[in-house]
Write a structure and sequence with these properties.
Chains A, B, C, D: Its cofactor is FMNH2. Chains A, B, C, D: Homotetramer. Four copies of one chain form a homotetramer. Chain A is an alpha+beta fold. Chain A has a single domain, classed as Chorismate synthase, AroC fold. Chain A has twelve helices and 17 strands. The radius of gyration of chain A is 22 Å and the shape is globular. In chain A, about 65% of the residues are buried. Chains in contact: A-B, A-C, A-D, B-C, B-D, C-D. At the A-B interface, helix 4, helix 5, helix 9, strand 10 and helix 10 of A face helix 4, helix 5, helix 9, strand 10 and helix 10 of B. Strand 10 of chain A pairs antiparallel with strand 10 of chain B, so a sheet runs across the interface.
């Protein structure tokens, strides 16, 4: 499968086309909208998030609630486009308009954003031409794409959930996850303002977010995605670019502001001995092969082991601050204190939703590529066979 | 550019084909062999590493020391192939041989390796069929590929170096890197048994490695790759799969036993405020745009900023231990204590070399894709133009 | 570059996303609409073509008439969608509706269409689920994509034109092309009902089309695309999948109903001697290297030679006939005479426009991949350098 | 699946790596060598073909006669490499050697070859650097790759055969094919000097080849590939770049000297009415859906119909002639009569073997991508299911 996205932050719409989905997969706007709403939630979002409610329109590839096998196109309209048509319109400027009169031009790049280098790369002097696309607004349609992927995973008995494990050094108690399924975790975090499993930590996170906001500063954190119900053997060790963990790492790092990724106990492996890291292999008649632990996060040799995938990503604090940073005007070359374009003080909860959806896509894609996936029924049957086969191996 | 690798650990040879290199690039076996040798070094390697000296043969695509523009094929012959021809040969078994008589068959999967899942996936009962390919032996040709990529980077004024920053919790003092160029770092670590910048930490690492070996255990660590001299604007923010950091993350995770990656100050960003994370933008007549710090590791919006790229990867302890782990024989279903196939107690220094080379490849590839790269002279001229253009922007 | 298309024939819209275009390229809806209109013209189109006038909306990636470097999304709305919302809507059917009551269901596959095999492949019993996507309606957005590609080629001094060389055995006199530039050819054929350079042949073609229509039959033909102004050296011989002619062949065969492709004198080469086929190489101070003839159609070794590319494709007669063909109802398994879904008797002129645009895309893509193409000015400068360099070689 | 090839015509070896093959596929050097030998046969080959006997060595990915799932590397050694080590060696020239003293340098590009443009593109003054790679010698390993693909097709009940249908205007009587299976056709043409089904036409072809040779000229022709036993539904109509015919066309045009391709009755469709072109759909209890004819060559909507694929390619006469063509020395800019590098007067029979193998690869690849293909037994079972399913549809 593959997908492309298009759309500027203040353009008329965000668009995505997904190619390669199996036919006969149930897909509805309602389910996608639910995920879009979760992306807009979480404590710490600015005003814009509260006034906009993103909803998707399915304009191709789905008929009467099921995929056709043909490409699926999704559109999320920008409600405030009417205020931006002159500023962002595709049409040529009328000849009697002086380009310098266009409103909201930007010549002052913000540190931590794509502004400066993007302007250099594409030859823009109005840095709006960069930030309209580099904005995390684009992740709206990536969530929509992931929501379709989740619909597929759901049909295949695979569950996925994300949660926030750390904000500005405040860590959730991971022991609270023990024994909980993905669905149980989701039920808990859905009602938490920080999408966090640990109410105590969450309360501290809320305070920290509010304080950061008051101080005109921003804070980052760590999100974790858990994928359950996978058969063993997705991905492959035979060639370096077919390893599933490499693909998941790439997906995580492709999210705006993400700067690191780790699987299982992750960087802790640098502090432990082999006998404390690897997961012993067990077998019994009923379940087949299992693992005593899951410190490797469900992946060995670039392949799923059948244990849950556990992957975390770190998000840097949002680079747009009220407390300004030093930068340089590209026209005057004068130093200035960087301006504010938007005002979230912490986007980690929202980003956890993005992470869930980009990981969902990669997992779904790996499955569709590996199996016969013209139609959902064929795919389902094969996953079942694979589970049975690996159990009996 | 693209490349494929082939070869089993005890097969006749490792092979790689690199397609898409510019013509007129100086490439010699000597330089590649030097990098292969570094991969075989470092404290903690087992006996096999000491007896084998990998050398490469260039069998296509290079003439009189320069690339032709046609695909480059590299071969690394396995010296002990003569002892394995019967066990690993490609020819059909003679009819009078009972397959069960083949020596060195394996029915006991090692935890932490691809053995079990690989056997399931590809339908093998002799798990040698898996481990011969999933072995880190394959990284030999990945280093060879990266060595060619480094020859290209070198021509373009780009330096790359890797070093070990942590082994089993012993951390090098990162302040020792300050003010040092990649070349200066290389000069120091080249003679260190752990490829570590900090002699005190290195001494402790050596001790830890020796102790792990004595205890029949293994230990992991963290490696860091630094890339200097890049122009701004390599990579792009316009589509999620064109972000350079996503590609580097994928490369790092594609190395055997790597379980995490981070850029700049990495996971520390989850513990800091925005005002402590982002790199302020400076400008002066002579240098153009620079940054006051490099906490983001040389990448913003998926693009190089012109500052050095700093990327780290975490390697788990090698899963093959003298101190055995619980596993299950796939034929008898009897539990057993997992056997030892090889005996390195710590491969982190060697893995740092692999990391350097897979990162070198991704950087070189990003440059070749972005610029006109039929011939080296064209490419060189364009990089120079890009540097001048971004300075004057 | 890459693009995806989505959209069913009677769905709300056709959509395409183009990723990888250089920034600063002038793109306007007007120019694209002009090409869409040409696609809808030509003698022999049915009623639907006359009532619909396709127009494009640029919803992303273009601001004030220029590309931003970010993905370009184009939408062509279907005017009669309002009559099809119940039949083709994405929403789930209300529970009280019996799926068998949906109008315009199809259980009778038409020979020559994707109906039967598409239904098998994707598990559809209502073959409308296939034909809505397999319809040539999709070529509307492929023309839109090609129109953007042509805008790029135009900036680079490259012209492209298509014309009809044969319909049901009536051949245009190719000597009329001699000495004419692409622009001159376009000026002539634009006003011809069959997009044919030869008025006499065109008149016969018109008659043949009318007769076919009267007889309830359909007819095919041959179209030719000519690309002028290319520098030498686009494409490469070094790997089989980098040959430009292989890519052009693939593009031509990807057009609905196309069944063959040939370059230069094409299949005639099977009837001639080498001394009559190859193009002798000339040189003079002013022009550099030229060819005495262009029998190979501008490509040698998978690369442009600097001579015009000449490529032809053959289109089968449209498979939907008033004069029905034998087929089988997939539900009853009863034989029947295949039904009519639409009524063009000849779509060759329209298809010539599609051919022009898919070839334009491949050429533009090959150039963008080969050169540094972040921005149009850089790309332009490099093409000029390439032309100068090859002249002085 | 994917593969890369490397190797210069007079270099030490040709190499290919095939990635993505299912495991447990029987592969032997003997079968590949048989196909390599067929490529070297056929009337009209020059002296070089007679002295060399290409044989393959399987150096990775196959153990005891079966694929492992890991990449397969194949090597074909050049026997006369020992005479070319100084001229073509990879090592840098010793400092005391003047590059102009290297033997067999070429400054005179041959019309119809990649020489001139290849030299421009990659900046070579010694055109040997081009022709060593652009030579059809490379097709040796493409045949080896296709031979492995054929081993896979064979396991899946799919047969493929190629034959020569025309040389310099002499056409084989196609009615001789009627009622014959691929295996029967192969049995006939294998012993024909022109790989032609029609002994009378073949005799004339032999004479024509001999006359061309005597006259110092060269001649081309048309080859046809037939693929039998395919299930319906391979390929897809849902996106333009997933159409199987587009991929086959690309493969055919990627063969050296091929300039056109057509399916079924091909360009004849431009001369016929729809009612004479399309294949009526039949159904009976026992066979399921069949077609009354196969004028479309087994493909509708970019998918296999279950009827045999019939695809033809046209090969231009070999551009290297004793009867020389006008060209220009790139150093002196003096006109000259183009020199002879090799001496085949007709390579059409050999090229038919190449065509068979590149088509085999594309078909095998399309199947492997579409189905679950980790292991051969899984793939086999699915093809059987697909055949049963489409029959019962």
């Amino acid at each position: 499968m593959r997908y492309l996205t298009a759309g500027e932050s203040h353009g008329p719409q965000l668009t995505t086309i997904i190619e390669g989905l199996p036919s006969l997969l149930p897909v509805t706007a309602e389910k996608i909208n639910y995920d879009l709403k979760r992306r807009q939630g979480g404590h710490g979002r600015g005003r814009r998030m509260q006034i906009e409610t993103d909803t998707v329109e399915i304009v191709s590839g789905v008929r009467h609630g099921q995929t056709l096998g043909s490409p699926v196109a999704l559109v999320v309209t920008n409600d405030d486009w009417k205020h931006w048509t002159k500023i962002m319109g595709a049409a040529e400027l009328p000849e009697d308009i002086d380009p310098s009169e266009i409103k909201r031009q930007i010549s002052r790049p913000r540190p931590g954003h794509a502004d400066l280098v993007g302007g250099m790369k594409y030859g823009h002097r109005d840095l709006r031409n960069v930030l309209e696309r580099s904005s995390a607004r684009e992740t709206t349609v990536r969530v929509a794409v992931g929501s379709v992927a989740k619909a597929l995973l759901n049909e295949l008995g695979i569950s996925i959930v994300s949660h926030v494990t750390e904000i500005v050094g405040i860590k959730a108690d991971s022991s609270l996850l023990e024994g909980k399924t993905a669905d149980e975790i989701r039920a808990i975090i859905e009602n938490d303002p920080c999408y966090c499993i640990d109410p105590e930590a969450s309360a501290k996170m809320v305070t920290a977010i509010d304080e950061a906001k008051k101080a005109g500063d921003s804070i980052g954190g760590v999100v974790e995605v858990i994928v359950e119900g996978l058969p063993a053997g997705i991905g492959s060790y035979v060639h370096y670019d077919r390893k599933l963990d490499a693909k998941l790492a790439s997906a995580m790092l492709s999210i705006n502001a993400f700067k690191g990724v780790e699987f299982g106990i992750g960087f802790e492996m640098a502090r432990k001995k082999g006998s404390e890291v690897h997961d012993e292999i067990l077998w019994d008649e009923e379940k087949g092969y299992t693992r005593a632990t899951n410190r490797l996060g469900g992946l060995e040799g670039g392949m799923t082991t059948g244990m849950p995938i556990v992957v975390r990503g770190v998000m840097k604090p949002i680079p747009t601050l009220y407390k300004p940073l030093q930068s340089v005007d590209i026209e005057t070359k004068e130093p200035f204190k960087a301006s504010v374009e938007r005002s979230d003080s912490c986007a980690v909860p929202a980003a956890s939703i993005v992470a869930e959806h980009v990981i969902a896509w990669e997992i779904a894609n790996a499955i569709v590529e590996q199996f016969h996936s013209d139609q959902l029924p064929q795919l389902k049957a094969q996953l079942d066979e694979m589970r049975q086969y690996t159990k009996e191996y």
